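Subgroup meeting minutes
Present: P.N., E.W., G.H.
Scribe: E.W.

1. P.N. recapped why we're keeping a running log of single-chain structure predictions: easier to compare across weeks, and new members can see raw inputs and outputs side by side.
2. G.H. added today's entry (86 aa).
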Amino acid sequence: MNPNLDEPHQQLGKIYLHIGLLDEALTELRKSLELNPGNTMARYRIGIVLIHQGKYEEALRSLKSTPPDINPAIVGRDTVWLLISL
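Output recorded in log:
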């Protein structure tokens, strides 16, 4: 994996999220954003990881900062899920 490309880090973060390795997922997703601040899926998935970690206020900030090019219905659904958890 080329460590200077953002997308492999984003995809690895997604895999870690799906298998429950949340700290590892967060590390990879943040690395992806560091390499490419415009990676909206990495930003969105950081919010999802934070929800799973119980860091609801931080997750809400992350989801609110997700640009509108991600399906707003998905972001809205996950934001509601988060708010119910508060």
